[in-house]
Structure prediction request, 265 residues.
Amino acid sequence: MSKSDELARLIRDRAGGQPPEYGLILGSGLGHLSSQVQGTAIPYSDLPGFPHAGVSGHVPQLVIGELEGRRVAVFGGRAHYYESGRADAMRLPLEVLAALGCRQLILTNAAGSLRADLPPGSLMLLSDHIAMGGLNPLIGEPSEARFVPMTDAHDAGLRQRLLDAARAEAVDLAQGVYFWFSGPSLETPAEIRAAKVLGADAVGMSTVPEIILSRFLGLRCAAISVITNMGAGLSDEAISHEHTKAMAPLGAAKLEQVLRRFLRG
Ligand code: HPA
Prediction:
């Protein structure tokens, strides 16, 4: 039995066998929702191979249960490329999600904005992304499936439903392109200007490898950024992880409203 099938069995033994309809991955400072799920919380430390979630602001547990009447699997924290140098650090958790029978994933993250009309506290639905660092979580994957198409990586149906949910909640949900930087150092002002020229609206250090892996595994996905700061050089405020965690709650309440409405349908 594969490692992901073994872990899926362990999770089913603890949390019940019904497949989650949605997976949710919560970004820095956005972990509150995982405590709202009625169900079973499994610490990552009980799931061999899951990330140790060494980034503060994350809640290292998988919660399986009900939220707004839907069966969900909520990842309270993620592994980033910059923690290990492995772009496929989230492969096992995503394989487990697929092995549980889940086929749809909503990802969230904290991000820096490149647009004056997206100040800290704004929400941005990813219309697309740019991965220019030469990194890819499927490097080394031997199967032909590695040539995964990315044309519809950000699923049109899920995005429309998120936009509808935001409108119903009177929450502004902008759309834009997310540029993946490896981190962990933040960008230089020149890198931010370059990302802007290349068509990006926001920058961050996560999500993109997870979307590539999810498409490889056959999951439909969509992602929302909570803007915590303007990109380097675009404002006078200092950028730091502390600042990101402090600013995330500004957008997190709106994000929760949108996600709850999305699930309620
Ligand atoms: N850059 C990269 N990642 C981030 C930022 C940023 O400005 N803000 C939050 N995550």
In short: The longest strand covers residues 220-230.
